[in-house]
Design goal:
By secondary structure, the chain is mostly beta strands. It has one helix at residues 2-15, and strands at residues 22-34, 38-41, 47-49, 52-66, 72-89, 92-111, 115-131, 136-141, 144-156, 159-168, 173-178, 183-188, 192-201. A hairpin with a 5-residue loop joins β2 and β3 (47-49). It is elongated and about 60 Å long.
Length: 202
């Protein structure tokens, strides 16, 4: 059902853009990610640890079309993102990574002829997650979530640079099991991240 709703939103947006002013291109960049809390249970008696932010990366494609509302455009994107962070576990900082597909649908406005501001929902599908510990295995994952992105950018010809802030709105939880001590992990995969992107219009 959630996938159907997403497709309807994208179809509605693209159906209302001006076909004479549709652009598309590719993008890539880095993201500085901060996950939600990790909860340890079992022998750890429900201890809670916060994430240490790490830098990740993203790459994808984008489309942009002018809306029949003066000065506004819609920009849906399909982006692969690898987010990285670390948690304190047994007095050591253990890297934690997860991969997702982001589909932001941004409403924006050009200003000063070369700059843009934008905001919109970001639909996210988590592909997988893992700790860099061989004895810890993922046992369950909430894959679909919704967040919000906002930011600003500048364009010089076909090249664009933008900075965004993203925040996950709906909770997505990943659960893990450590075979060495029978402890369980639950991680809130909602991200709060700064995203720096470079785009090129084809």
């Amino acid at each position: 059902m959630k996938k159907i709703v997403l497709l309807i939103i994208l179809a509605f947006g693209l159906n209302h853009v001006s076909t004479a002013q549709i652009h598309f291109g590719v993008k890539a960049g880095v993201n500085y990610n901060d996950n939600g809390n990790l909860t340890l249970s079992g022998t750890f008696n429900d201890a809670v640890a916060g994430a240490d932010a790490k830098s990740g990366f993203h790459a994808g494609i984008w489309f942009r079309g002018k809306l029949p509302i003066i000065g506004l455009y819609i920009r849906p994107e399909i982006v692969y993102t690898e987010a990285k962070s670390a948690y304190l576990y047994k007095a050591a900082s253990i890297p934690y990574n997860f991969q997702k597909i982001d589909v932001p649908v941004l409403l924006g406005k050009k200003i000063l002829g070369f700059a843009t501001v934008f905001i919109g929902p970001s639909f996210q599908y988590v592909l997988g997650s893992d700790f860099e510990i061989s004895t810890v295995n993922e046992v369950s994952l909430d894959a679909f979530s919704v967040g919000i992105q906002s930011g600003f950018g500048v364009e010089f010809g076909k090249v664009g640079i933008d900075v965004r802030w993203e925040r996950g709105l709906s909770k997505t939880e990943a659960s893990f099991f450590n075979v060495t001590d029978s402890s369980t992990f639950q991680i809130d995969n909602r991200t709060s991240q700064i995203i720096l992107g470079l785009s090129y219009r084809l």
